[in-house]
């Protein structure tokens, strides 16, 4: 947008805003600047008679063009304004704010408002219904026929059914990490990806950790793109498949058992820290296996695993294939710096030990045994 671009109004679009609802419900969310722009557009409505430069708005509300673009986007996101563009000109269609009761009946809007003014303040706005009385209000189908000429008031809601979502959570004993923020994120993900509540719940359950829904992992799961990695050895293919088939704790437990050890509390904490980075279990599993193979020990070298996790999070590695490819590429770059050629081995190149200067025959045998066990598990699963 530029200050000299023209704007006009849609004709026959007279609105009568509910200013009580606008001030109490919308203004805390959209902010004073967006509220001022909406009020100015409403006050200067001319039934589509003329065209005006955007500088007219800028001068009245005293803001620059970047702020104006942002406020118009905010008004659009809250369904208070629709914007149509043709070349360098724009057409505005104002929409009325929802009534206070309808606004608060929308779970997404209610959570957004609570984030701004707090839950107690929102509770004060909610009209309490009689507890002991029986409601006898007729429904639409009770009053109107299929050819009724009185339109039903549109219900401002998406196909995301929060109540049904919570019912499934209770059945599976899942909980929110932060209900207020998580509900907003769930609505965003559902709308962005065209999900209904059942599709949203399926992804939420798959990416939950410790019975807690993790919306950042849901986003990672959605953004996973198919990656074709060529030249994987059988061992690497088994690692990818096993990484996908097990949770991070199950995978770590398997590796510890091969070393006749148990998972420690600090290792559990390390897994949780990797989860908090938003990494999926399949990526965490590759990190854990690589760390064990790099540092010959019965215990997970947590500092190194977290170092890898930070690197993977920064480089947006979202699948086991991407993790394997990244480690192989990194290994290949490291090999170029060495003068002597590497000794051939059945062990995948990316998982060879580097920290210790000498590899014991026992350590090599244990690593090969682990790969054989992974392959054997895969064979049983396919059978």
TrEMBL record:
Organism: Streptococcus zhangguiae
Compositionally biased residues, Basic and acidic residues: 326-342, 351-361
Any Pfam family: WHD_DnaB
Organism superkingdom: Bacteria
Listed InterPro entries: WHD_DnaB (IPR058660)
Protein name listed in UniProt: Replication initiation/membrane attachment protein
Disordered: annotated segments: 325-363
Boundaries of every Replicative helicase loading/DNA remodeling protein DnaB N-terminal winged helix domain copy: 1-223
């Amino acid at each position: 947008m530029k200050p000299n671009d023209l704007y006009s109004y849609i004709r026959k679009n007279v609105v009568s805003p509910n200013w009580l609802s606008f001030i109490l419900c919308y203004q805390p969310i959209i902010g004073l600047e967006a509220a001022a722009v909406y009020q100015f557009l409403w006050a200067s409505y001319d039934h589509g008679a003329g065209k005006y430069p955007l500088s007219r708005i800028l001068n009245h509300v005293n803001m620059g063009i970047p702020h104006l673009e942002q406020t118009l986007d905010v008004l659009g996101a809250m369904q208070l304004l629709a914007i149509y563009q043709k070349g360098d000109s724009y057409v505005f269609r104002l929409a009325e704010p929802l009534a206070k009761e309808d606004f608060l009946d929308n779970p997404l809007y209610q959570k957004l408002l609570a984030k701004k003014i707090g839950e107690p303040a929102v509770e004060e706005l909610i009209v309490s219904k009689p507890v002991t009385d029986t409601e006898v209000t007729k429904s639409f189908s009770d009053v109107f026929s299929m050819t009724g000429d009185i339109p039903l008031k549109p219900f401002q809601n998406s196909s995301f059914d929060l109540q049904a979502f919570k019912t499934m959570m209770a059945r599976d004993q899942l909980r929110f990490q932060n209900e207020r923020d998580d509900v907003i994120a769930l609505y965003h993900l559902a709308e962005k990806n065209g999900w209904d509540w059942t599709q949203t719940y399926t992804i939420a359950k798959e990416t939950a950790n410790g019975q807690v829904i993790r919306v950042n992992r849901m986003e990672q799961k959605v953004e996973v793109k198919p990656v074709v990695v060529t030249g994987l050895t059988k061992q690497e293919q088994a690692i990818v498949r096993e990484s996908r088939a097990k949770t991070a704790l199950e995978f770590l437990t398997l590796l510890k058992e091969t070393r006749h050890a148990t998972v420690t509390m600090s290792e559990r904490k390390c897994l949780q820290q990797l989860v908090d980075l938003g990494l999926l279990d399949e990526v965490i599993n590759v990190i854990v296996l690589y760390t064990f193979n790099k540092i010959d020990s019965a215990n997970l070298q947590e500092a190194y695993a977290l170092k890898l996790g930070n690197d993977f999070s920064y480089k947006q590695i979202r699948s086991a294939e991407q993790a394997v490819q990244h480690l192989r590429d990194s290994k290949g770059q490291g090999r170029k710096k060495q003068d002597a050629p590497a000794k051939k081995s059945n062990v995948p190149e990316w998982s060879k030990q580097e920290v210790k200067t000498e590899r014991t025959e026992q350590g090599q045998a244990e690593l090969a045994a682990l790969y054989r066990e992974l392959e054997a598990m895969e064979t049983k699963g396919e059978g």
